[in-house]
Amino acid sequence: MVRTIAAVCRPIPRSYSGSAQQEPYMVETNKTDGTSLETHSLERWEIASCEPSTEIPPSIPVNLRDWIAAAAPGDTYLALHAADRLPHPFERENELACAWVADREWWWRTSFDAVPAQQGERVELVFDGLDTYASVWLNGEFLGNSRNMFVAARFDVGPLLHDDVPNQVLVCFTPPAIAAAGKEMATWDLLADPIKTSKRHFHRKAQFGWGWDWGPSLPTVGIWRPARLERHHIASLDSVHFTTESIGTVARVAIELNIDPFAVQDETLDAAITLLAPDGSVAATQTFDWDLASRSARITLDIDNPKLWWTHELGEPSLYTLQIELAHAGRMVDQRAIRVGIRTIALDTSPDPDEPGCDFFRFVLNGVPAFMRGVNWIPASSFVGAVQVDEYRRLLTDAAAANINMVRVWGGGVYETEGFYDTCDELGIMVWQDFMFACAPYPEHDTALIDSISAEVAYQVDRLRNHPCIALWCGENEGHAVHQFLAMQGTESGPYPGALIFDQLIPAILERLDPATPYRPGSPFGGPSHNSMRAGDEHNWTVWHGVPPIPDKLPAGERDGSPVGVAYTRYAEDRARFVSEFGIQSAPAATTLARWLAPEDYALGTPGFLHRLKDHPKDKVDAMLLPVTGLPADLDQYVDFTQLVQAEGLKFGIEHYRRRKPHCSGTLIWQFNDCWPGITWSLVDYDGARKPSWYYVARAYSPVLGSLKITDDGTLELWVTNDTLNEVKSDATLTLTDLSGLTFNEQMIEWCVPANASVVVWRSTRAKIGAAPNRVLAVRSPRFPGNRLLFGPFKELLGTGADPRIMIEDEANEMLRVTLTGTHYHPIVHLHSDDPAVKFSDNCFDLGKHETRTVRVFRPGAKLCVNDIRLGKLPR
Ligand code: BMA
């Protein structure tokens, strides 16, 4: 019988409805892993809790009561909320009232019908992820423990199954605090999370769960990945590894297979391997007799005129389907169908001839150096088991629409589920994949932990390596760098505790399982110091956190949180090779805040408002606002001002870094998404509303960018940065106006930029064009998004402008067409909707006098009416 593995997810409630009703179950098909083995998904469970035992495994309590429904994969907090046992953890300050959940012992149970394993069969109870200290029983027999949420747990249960009565599965989750009792290791005080009490560095569990500077403390517990029964016949295909060996008019790909022939020996299997092209035609096929004296087999295939996998702006993200069929004595024993891409990936760290003493840090896709216009990704919910594939699709489609071509799965979260990587493959987004370690020393001498980490690394590399989106493996986030920073200040000494994991253990496993994909031990990492501008990648936290740029010589300076210390114009001092973190905090949409705050807390400084702000000190943003917008008078203005500064700051930084191409070859903004409705660095808030920064970033990340720069000596420059693989030629108009729209200078130029390059196409001076603080230099071109340069602080433009003329009409496909016409120079025209799902084809742009802009407005799945949108009031 052929069945597809099915995973069941409960939709995550994006907004609080106050209802205790169960959400409908949704069935998602795992597209990349169709096998012929029989599977029985274990989706419906019940859960109950008790005071924790200190034993692992505990004895099974006899008096557990009040079982409630839960789904696997799923989440305990949301199951409790659905059963009316818990307020919604994201609403108001309910996070605090949910703390008891992590201190309880949680029991999950389910039952299923099955027959015991027959001759030549193996039956396994499989959990793709147990979070975290789990003890498992079947029909009263203890099967074993799992201590790492990032590894699948498999139990051979064939002989234990009953065919006359339902089979009972019981899983107990022991609180992490009990599992880590007695474990001690010195750690750091530097970060916002409570590592000393959580001891998170001892747990192979999502590190952000105990709270981060953008997220609540809600450590998850339960069956967070699919659970199922698998019935195998004769042999099972253990692993498949697809690699591209070479590309050209003919591409050579290699396929390595590993098998476990558990019921046959010294025999032969009939193997058939077929590669289907993106259009479904057979690109190559090969059959062979697999002599099981060897458990592994390797073949190569030559593909004529291959359709390469590219990021979305460089070409098509073409996907092939690799089919593997294994038969024994005329009967199919296993089969697999996975989507793969033909592409090569490399990381060029060679010396940069034009910046002596510095090395490149640039990704080379299919032989082409590509600038990474990227973002950092955190889990899409604190409740990691409840994120559905639709949620990944919505967010990643939003990323691709903002011209983002790389996403870094940050090490304090989780290895994402298949739906995430499938979507990146389809959308042509490369993935920088951290291993799940962040901002901590790790106990590298704890041998049980090291064994668990080895198993985790091997499991995750095997699971993810065939995705063409995987561009880099990275050992950890900021551990090496923070240790070195503290050593410079004299509070740490010796090597970084954990370095053994990142410098030896992980590289050895990658060498065996995925030698073709680049690896970095950490981020930031490399160069004379780990946050050097000369080599490796850099995290720029001068802006926002006031962390001094780390000099190549010791010692590190003190944090400077003054307006000058943290100003976003300081990005201009950054000559890094690749900036893998930089960002500015802002509030979510006002409607998002209003949805989750108590009405009386919708004001600056209230407990509810401060609760949503996890970074310290809570007024850190003031230093960034003061010179740009001034301080806000109320919460609405706080939303507008923080969003404006984030948008302007990111634009400033990205433009600077992109002009430096190829010496700088990538920017990953901190952070793309949110795990809850907080005040954070995200571009898209938890409820799905795009912040103004999303629109700014979409323009600043346009593959062809026109940007204006003013040098220290007052020279004005127009740069065109071309990330495409073709020369681009066009014209541009530069107009200097004041806010009334009066024109002081206008020039038309023609420009031409070679493929994959960044050059100056026009120069002038402030004096020549008549620049002044209340004037704006705007540039328009058919080949890049409109742009502008201000000559004074933004606050001088606030409150001075008028609204443009606006006309809103119905259009085909349930869209609205908004036509805006300038009556003056209008900085930052902002269209609003109270519905976070409403999308604008463009937003938050400047509009010149007599300029007309048409914006399309749509909401997936609904028809909009004219009253659904309005013009925002900032900064007029
Ligand atoms: C970096 C990240 C995160 C953090 C962010 C903002 O340190 O790696 O740890 O949330 O900056 O502070």
Describe this structure in words.
There is one protein chain. This protein has 876 residues and is an alpha+beta fold. Helices cover 17% and strands 33% of the residues. Helix 5 (389-401) packs parallel to helix 6 (418-427) and helix 14 runs parallel beside helix 15. The protein binds beta-D-mannopyranose. Residues 212-214, 412, 438-439, 477-478, 581, 670 line the site of beta-D-mannopyranose.
Helix and strand topology:
Layout lengths: L5 E4 L16 E4 L8 E4 L2 E7 L17 E4 L4 H7 L11 H4 L7 E8 L8 E7 L2 E2 L1 E6 L2 E6 L6 E4 L10 E8 L1 H4 L15 H4 L11 E3 L2 E3 L4 E2 L3 E7 L2 E11 L3 E11 L7 E9 L5 E10 L4 E9 L15 E9 L2 E10 L4 E4 L13 E4 L2 E3 L1 E6 L11 H13 L4 E4 L8 H10 L2 E5 L12 H18 L5 E5 L4 H10 L10 H15 L5 E2 L17 E2 L23 H4 L12 E3 L8 H7 L10 H5 L10 H7 L6 H25 L6 E4 L22 H9 L3 E7 L4 E8 L5 E11 L4 E11 L3 E9 H4 L5 E7 L2 E7 L14 E7 L3 E7 L4 E4 L1 E3 L5 E2 L4 E3 L4 E7 L10 E3 L5
Helix pairs in contact: 5-6, 7-9, 14-15
Characteristics:
alpha+beta; binds beta-D-mannopyranose; 16 helices; six-stranded parallel β-sheet; globular
Question: What is the strand tally?
Answer: 49
- Which band does the percent of strand residues land in? 25-35%
What distance separates the N and C termini?
67 Å
Rg over CA atoms, rounded to whole Å, is: 28 Å
Mean pLDDT metric? 92
* Secondary-structure class: alpha+beta
Roughly what percent helix?
A: 10-25%
Q: Could you give a short account of the major beta sheet?
A: 6 strands, antiparallel
